[in-house]
Amino acid sequence: MGRPLQLLMLALMLSTAHAAEQSIEVLHWWTAGGEAKAANLLKQRWQAQGNRWVDAAIDGGGGGSAMLVLRSRTLAGNPPQAAHLKGAELHAWARLGFLRPVSDVARRGQWDMRLYPFVSSTLNHQGQMMAVPIGIHRVNWLWINQPIFDRLKLEPPRSWPELLAVARRLKAAGITPLAMGDDPWQLAILFESIALGEGGSDFYRRAFVNLEPDALTGPRMQQVLLRFHSLRPFLPANHVGLKWNQATQMLIEGQAAMQLMGDWTKGELIAAGEIPGQRIRCLPAPGTTGRFSYNLDSLALFRQTNDASDQAQQRFAELLMTPEFQRDFNRVKGSIPVLAEMDLAGFDPCARLAGQALQRAERDGSLVPSVAEGMATPPRVQQALQEVLANYFSDADADAATTAARLAQTIKAVQSEWQPGVE
Ligand code: GAL
Which residue lies with its CA nearest to atom 4 of ligand 1? Predict the structure, then answer.
């Protein structure tokens, strides 16, 4: 082969490598209005750098279906290059060895000096950074339709007894008090908000992080269960199968007065042209002022066998951590940036409140991982807990003491059958 031909072949090889290097397939479940806009922003920023985006969006709030698809694809030897993986589920994948740690990118970008400390520790697996953090969601929020409250001369509830009193008045006036579906994870958000509001962060941690049998079965847990159960009459008539974002639409349209949900709800509000904190207001879930239950969104990278693909992943990880991307993405998604250095001046009022609450909670030790969002317990424990809670909630005659005992027993059973790496 003559030298010019050799050079031409080399150039061709390099350009193919370059093209491959630019492509990223991302698996996620950001398909609701606001979520899809945020995912689209990420896609556009990546494409603007001359890259290719392959979308693997799997419908279903909370990500249950996305996780099933991820498992079957990975077992078939065809994982995506990146996936929305977070909390305990991320650690389970890390233990199985499928993930590419991002410690090298983190070192180059000095992430440890820039991230909130709890973000680094959440993503740390045996000394390695296992995913790129994208945004911090506060889970313990109550959203209210202020015009309804004004019309009925109601005060926003600051405690759970106040919320029940307000709910009764709303119901008497023919308005659905609480917009909410029957997904176990939606119910778990309600339940953990009550536990945090009425039990406080120490109780919350003893029960859901340390899984202490006394905390799981004791009188405080029984009270939390009773309170949870007492909200049954205040859900929409069509609550079976109601998705979280459909519940938010009910709130926006004034068919319901309140919703308890993490601040991805804001993505829906913004997509509907609302300014969060105005007509639809954000308040800490009753009793949780200054407390912060977090859901840390992160993207994990799956190990690649070719170098070009690995290079693309590194570029992708770098993009996610730029302040510009963090600012723009989180403003659409409803979360706040993971970079502690960032000023929230241009963010909506609810994001600014979340930022203040986060700093205060970090200082006071009131920052807790959300159970419903998979931040607190291994996936199987979370699933068992949510099943017990959903059964309890759907049964009009269920008993709190029996349910508390069942919670502790079920968790114990799952823990003893659980072995690291085989979740
Ligand atoms: C969470 C996810 C959020 C949000 C929500 C609803 O699990 O972390 O980003 O999208 O589900 O789908």
Answer: 264
Tell whether 58 and 121 lie within a shared domain. Answer: yes
- Reported as type and span, the H/E element at residue 402 is helix 400-417
CB 175 within 8 A of CB 182: no
Ligand 1 atom having least distance to the Cα of 63: 7
| Domain total of the chain | 2
**Cα of 343 from ligand 1 centre, angstroms:** 24
Q: Is residue 316 in some structural domain?
A: yes
Q: Residues lining ligand 1, judged by CB closer than 6 Å?
A: 29-30, 35, 61-63, 137, 264, 295, 297, 373
> Which ligand 1 atom minimizes the distance to the CA of 185?
7
| CATH code of the domain covering residue 215 | 3.40.190.10
132 vs 299: CA distance, rounded Å? 5
Statement: the pTM of the whole predicted model exceeds 0.90: yes
Pair 236, 376 in one domain: yes
Can you give the pLDDT at residue 199?
97
**pLDDT digits 0-9 by tens, 258-284:** 999 999 999 999 999 999 999 999 999
Angle formed at CA 418 by CA 414 and CA 419, multiple of 5 degrees: 175
Find the range with the poorest average confidence among 11-15, 39-43, 146-150, 375-379.
11-15
| Neighbour count for residue 279 (Cβ, 10 Å) | 16
Same domain, 175 and 247: yes
Average pLDDT, the chain: 94
Specify whether 37 is located in the same domain as 171: no
Closest-lying ligand 1 atom to the alpha carbon of residue 264: 4
Task: Report the separation in Å between the CA atom of 116 and the middle of ligand 1, taken as the mean of its atom positions.
Answer: 20
Give the mutation target among 40, 67, 137 for probing the ligand 1 site: most ligand atoms within 8 A of CB: 137
Q: Which of the pair, 97 or 422, is modelled with greater confidence? A: 97
- pLDDT at position 423 over 60: no
Structure tokens at 69: 């698809």
Q: Are residues 236 and 172 in the same domain?
A: yes
Note down the domain range covering 237. Answer: 141-293+365-413
Same domain membership, residue 194 and residue 331: no
Q: Which atom of ligand 1 is nearest to the CA of 267?
A: 10
Do the strands 367-369 and 292-301 form a parallel or antiparallel pair, or are they unpaired? parallel
